[in-house]
Amino acid sequence: MYKIKAVLKSPLMIGGKTLSSNYRESRDYIPGSVLRAAYAKALVERCHCEQRNYWLDYKDEPQCKECEFRTICQRFSQLVFPTLYPFGSRPYPMTAREKKYKYKEERSVLDILKSRLSLSENDLDESAWKRLEGVHKDGKTVKLIHSTITRTAIDYYRNTAKEGLLYTQNVISEKYLKENKELADVYFSGEIQLSPEEEKELCRIEILHIGAGITKGFGVCYMFYEEQTDKDTSEKIEERVKEFNLGMKEDKQFVVLDLLTDAYLGLEEIGDDSLSQTEISTEQMLAFLEKQIGLPKEKYHLYKVFKSQEILTGFNTSKGTEKEMRRRGHLVVKAGAVFVYQTLSKCIDGEELAALEERGIGKHTEHGFGKICVCDSFHTQYDVLKGEKNG
User: Fold this and answer.
1) Counting runs of H as helices and runs of E as strands, what totals does the chain give?
2) pTM for the full model?
3) Sheet holding 253-259, edge to edge
4) Helices (H), 26-121
């Protein structure tokens, strides 16, 4: 396992929210699919064989045997590219809260999950709290600097600006302001599993162009790799599960799955609009998600879910025409979702949960989607009650 770090050297535009026909805002993270596409293009540009439409395909030609990227090219489709978050941060879980009005000495970050599970809904007064969104590192919200750039589309036949096609992009700046008021480089990081030979070959690509607008100078990143020694293990997972259940009733043991990246869980099978989603009962939704996540039903029962969702679309640039390139939109569960399972203490299997962490949930896990953490320590560290009324 390696830590992959992309240090930003120019503004970054990751195709994100189109707020109007001529305004687009970059996402604050780099999806694994975007990272894969950037590496594929870099490898295609270095390839001695003909590659069509920047689609990387190992040719097994005589010159391939001497290529310095032979191993990575052969195994490229099997690699799991992670989602990269700024400064190694994580998304806030859906249960994270902060007080609307607080004094300096009070804790600014709170988590309501344990209180929701141990108390009745009527016992909670959440009117003074508001939900925390975005990403955090060590309980502190990570905020990037955005820059607004306005451009106009060009008619290359007439060499003039296209009428009515002035557009604005809200991009991520390559710098951020530290607490001591100094400017420093922005970096995005995540974890990737590589063999030593794969890591050696990827390290040869020192500069990578990521995201949209790379022909305009956007997305220039210096890439670094560092071997990770602190791995999550079945023993650590079992310890976190025990810690989370401290103070809970003995007949109620919970296992929590925290979603660290967006996940494709097939919600479009229910319906691709909000009305279809609300027409099914809570029990039906839990049963559907339980099947998609895949923990054994005889051991674990999906008890409660905190989630939000959105429609993701995209392009497959290996296709010939723009119509073929456009991918059909799919409903995804947003990062930060919390899936709460109920079980018996004797059924908790650390190795089983560790295997689920490693493979992720849902589809397209090879692009970093569906990454989870079992019983993230965030829920105990920032528990709003701190065990005062649990149980």
Assistant:
1) 10, 23
2) 0.85
3) 301-306, 338-343, 253-259, 372-374
4) 32-46, 70-74, 113-118
